[in-house]
């Protein structure tokens, strides 16, 4: 088994795409048929998509937590403002990580590879 798609919803998809681009993701802005315009990128076999909120949503789900391992850990962290860095780099049983917050309030774990 493997994951193929991860979709998050955002109140501001452009701001979200800009945030995740700081992690090294390269997005395309497109739509499928008559669906909503959204941002998408593919890493290995996983497609990560940022869609606008559904019509009945007023805010994004902030309980979703993502973890991403990156090669250029120190450089990437400098791209985030101090307000976006919730937890400075520290060692854990899973390796060194920092926690940042995306524009919708989700906590994103950034791991050093």
Q: What are the SSEs and their pairings?
A:
Blueprint: E1 5-10, H1 13-21, E2 28-30, E3 38-43, E4 46-52, E5 66-70, H2 73-77, E6 85-92, E7 95-101, E8 107-112
Parallel strand pairs: 1-4, 5-8
Antiparallel strand pairs: 2-3, 3-4, 6-7, 7-8
TL;DR?
With 113 residues, the protein is mainly beta.
Quick tags:
four-stranded mixed sheet; mainly beta; 113 residues; globular; 2,3-Dihydroxybiphenyl 1,2-Dioxygenase, domain 1
According to CATH, what is the class? Alpha Beta
Note the total helix count: 2
CATH evolutionary superfamily: 2,3-Dihydroxybiphenyl 1,2-Dioxygenase, domain 1
Please outline the major beta sheet: 4 strands, mixed
Instruction: Give the N-terminus to C-terminus distance in angstroms.
Output: 23 Å
CATH topology: 2,3-Dihydroxybiphenyl 1,2-Dioxygenase, domain 1
Biggest β-sheet: strands ordered side by side in the sheet: 1-4-3-2
Shape: globular
**How large is the share of residues in beta strands?**
35-45%
Structural class: mainly beta
> What is the H/E string?
EHEEEEHEEE
């Amino acid at each position: 088994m493997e994951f193929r798609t991860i979709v998050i919803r955002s109140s501001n998809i452009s701001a979200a795409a800009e945030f995740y681009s700081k992690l090294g993701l390269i997005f395309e802005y497109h739509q499928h048929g008559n669906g909503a315009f959204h941002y998408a990128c593919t890493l290995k076999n996983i497609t990560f998509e940022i869609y606008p909120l559904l019509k009945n949503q007023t805010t994004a789900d902030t309980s979703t937590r993502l973890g991403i391992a990156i090669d250029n850990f120190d450089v990437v962290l400098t791209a985030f403002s101090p307000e976006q860095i919730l937890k400075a780099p520290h060692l854990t049983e899973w390796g060194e990580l920092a926690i940042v917050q995306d524009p919708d309030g989700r906590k994103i774990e950034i791991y050093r590879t």
